[in-house]
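User: Here's a chain of 261 residues. Predict its fold as tokens.
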Amino acid sequence: MYGIFMECWVALKLYGGNWALLLIFLAAALYLVIKEENIKKKIMLGVIPILILAGFLVPVTKIVYVAVVNKDGDTYYRVLWLIPMYVVIGYAACKLIVSFGKKAVARIALVVILALIACTGSLVYLNQYVSVAENLYHIPNDVIEICDRIKPDEGQPRVRAAFPSDLVHFVRQYDTNILMPYGREMVVPQWDYYNPVYEVMEKPETIDAEELLKATRETKCSYIILANDRKIDKDLTEFGLKVLDTVGKYIIYADSEILEN
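Assistant: Prediction complete.
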């Protein structure tokens, strides 16, 4: 049981990030439990969220979740999605501000609370996956050009292509006719999934061309997209692949062995 509890605790730590927002949520929920006079609101926004958070750490909850919902338990953290965290914080903050009565004090309290919440997070524009929009799709132009180049014709079956990990987030947003051997699940370190294409294409400093082709052909990849600065021990054209096009810094290789089958 202790081992399961520690698994739940680690999942909560990963979900909570720097813990600041979770602590604010707990403070808000406790404040509502104490100060809220409306019984329904007290229960819905104070008592139940705290019970869900506490129940998440109880080993029995995870045992039941694994038995009923997901046998691997790798989505157990989603139980925390049941907590209306921002509603609780927002409502408690408004209730606290109103309780001051005087406009001047209430305004100061509003600024302090907003500043406190803002300081708990990080600037979204510093995220590696956030950039200035280049088009109406809000995805990199390179992705659009690559997808347009390799997408199947009308009525043709979908194709599979191995993309660099920095592009996998965007491909499915643009064209669902292009499948990939791995998706965003591979670029989340804590999930620690295994995928043969990802192992040989992304993990080594220098790609083993033969191993890469073995993996992509086993997964029926018609195309391989590599950045031109990516190290590879042999040119893929030596194995029968053709350079279909170059888009920005990315080279599109077409594998006729898969395309013709």
